[in-house]
Design a protein that fits this description.
The protein has 11 helices and 2 strands. The protein has 2 domains: 3-122, no CATH class; 135-315, no CATH class. Helix content is 75%, strand content 2%. Keywords: Membrane, Transmembrane, Transmembrane helix.
């Protein structure tokens, strides 16, 4: 696939990710904007798939599938689930026709977006654009969520408030643009884990002007993601993060593993300090003192992150 060819699906995926932030993460499939987005993706994907089938010779398709069979099976997963839901509809055994039909659309949508990501990631330009979109989506979710907490952005539904301590220990949970704390926490856990793995692969030079201070930028985002995750109070997201973190620790080796552990400790400790303060205020702190505390803890965390990246050089 050419650079231009990979940038088109990458741009579509990035735009869709940003759009989903405003659609509650597609939690409600029966709204008009959600149906338009899903239908548009499915229609365009069907047309492109038909063109691909007509253009490529049978032998070339077989060769492509033979070269990457595992990729093909993984990409086919969502479509298999969509087909199973479709069979349930045809057999007239669905408990809810509308919910089952929405499941068919949803899994087919996840499948075509997954294929688009796969195609875009095949080229350097597409991968770069996907990374930009990834950071944009994560940044939008984290910044808007915290802006709602600190009273900078009126965002109805961003904070779930309840007197039931079994639902929210602090009396409030952060759901951000998704308006659903469990889903929001899971998404923030994924973004946090990605930043921690990225930080593990960077050395002291990435915390310098030579690399445009990208290490500090990554650490700052990691702290915001960790704070949002803690404020969501999602135990399922905590468990998923721990499993993912353990897998990362097992796969990394040498200095990368050391940096991974050190950066994780710094980020989680800083996030916990801020989360405790915000929880005491039931996620409604006084704006100025709250922002000053955020800035102070962020500065301290960035300083410690820089020291963590240099720890091996100092020891040697």
């Amino acid at each position: 696939m050419s650079g231009f060819g990979s940038s088109v699906p990458a741009a579509a995926v990035c735009g869709t990710g940003l759009a989903l932030c405003g659609l509650n993460g597609l939690f409600f499939m029966d709204t008009e904007p959600a149906l338009l987005l899903v239908s548009g993706w499915l229609a365009v994907s069907a047309a492109m798939a038909g063109g691909w089938v007509l253009r490529w010779r049978k032998s070339e398709r077989r060769r492509l599938l033979r070269e990457s069979p595992l990729d093909g099976w993984l990409l086919a997963g969502p479509f298999v689930l969509a087909a199973l839901y479709g069979l349930t509809l045809l057999a007239a055994k669905a408990l809810s026709v509308q919910a089952t039909f929405e499941a068919v659309l949803g899994w087919a949508f996840y499948g075509v977006v997954g294929v688009a990501v796969y195609l875009a990631a095949g080229e350097k330009g597409g991968r770069r654009l996907l990374e930009t979109g990834w950071l944009a989506v994560g940044g939008l979710l984290a910044v808007t969520g915290l802006a709602a907490v600190y009273g900078l952005l009126p965002l109805p539904g961003a904070v779930l408030r309840t007197a039931d301590r079994e639902i929210a220990a602090a009396g409030a949970r952060l759901g951000g643009l998704l308006q659903y704390p469990n889903a929001y926490g899971a998404v923030m856990a994924a973004f946090l884990l990605e930043r921690l793995v990225r930080l593990a692969g960077w050395s002291a030079v990435d915390f310098s002007r030579e690399r445009r201070w990208r290490g500090y930028r990554a650490a700052a985002w990691a702290l915001l993601y960790a704070l949002c995750l803690l404020l969501s109070e999602s135990r399922g997201a905590f468990a998923a993060l721990l499993i993912g973190w353990a897998a990362g620790c097992a796969l990394l080796r040498g200095p990368a593993r050391r940096r991974y552990v050190l950066h994780s400790g710094v980020i989680v400790a800083a996030g916990a300090a801020l989360a405790r303060q915000l929880a005491a205020a039931q996620l409604a702190p006084a704006p100025l003192p709250g922002l000053l505390a955020l800035a102070a803890v962020l500065a301290a965390a960035l300083l410690l992150a820089g020291l963590a990246a240099r720890w091996r050089e100092v020891r040697s």
